[in-house]
């Protein structure tokens, strides 16, 4: 999954504008930048460091719940769209803007196998 992908990222093969800051923090080193003098008390990053091998990287323990929440919203929006305009790419009036109570019904009907555990349909969808 994500860990396997992320551990292959390096200074040369990423597209995240914040990656250099992550790199410096994770490896406790400083990247050289044109026109900026390197603090002599800081270790210089070599670019040869590797996530997981040379760092303390560990995925946040709750990420899978965020992933599941994003999937739940996506499945609910897809289902809502299929109900109001099954074959058209356009939005119907109930989706522009999305009516909250109606969307909540779709969210409550979502059932899928998530990252952490299989989603379990609730007996009473009005309960949290």
UniProtKB/TrEMBL annotation:
The entry's localization annotation reads:
Membrane
**Record's GO cellular component terms:** membrane
Xref: InterPro entries: ANF_lig-bd_rcpt, mGluR, Peripla_BP_I
Task: List the keywords (alphabetical).
Answer: Glycoprotein, Membrane, Transmembrane, Transmembrane helix
Give the Receptor ligand binding region domain ranges. 39-114
Task: State the superkingdom.
Answer: Eukaryota
Q: Could you confirm whether the keyword Transmembrane appears in this record?
A: yes
Where would you find the membrane-spanning parts of this chain?
Answer: none
Pfam families attached here? ANF_receptor
Q: What is this protein called?
A: Receptor ligand binding region domain-containing protein
Q: Native species of this protein?
A: Tetraodon nigroviridis (Spotted green pufferfish)
Taxonomic path? Eukaryota, Metazoa, Chordata, Craniata, Vertebrata
């Amino acid at each position: 999954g994500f860990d396997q992908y992320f551990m292959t990222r390096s200074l040369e093969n990423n597209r995240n504008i914040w990656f250099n800051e992550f790199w410096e923090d994770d490896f406790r080193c400083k990247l050289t930048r044109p026109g900026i003098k390197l603090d002599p008390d800081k270790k210089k990053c070599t670019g040869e460091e590797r996530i997981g091998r040379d760092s303390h990287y560990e995925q946040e323990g709750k990420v899978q719940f965020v992933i599941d929440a994003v999937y739940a919203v996506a499945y609910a929006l897809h289902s809502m769209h299929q109900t109001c305009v099954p074959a058209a790419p356009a939005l119907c009036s109930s989706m522009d803007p999305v009516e909250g109570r109606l969307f909540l019904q779709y969210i409550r009907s979502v059932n899928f196998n998530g990252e952490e555990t299989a989603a379990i349909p609730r007996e009473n969808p009005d309960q949290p």
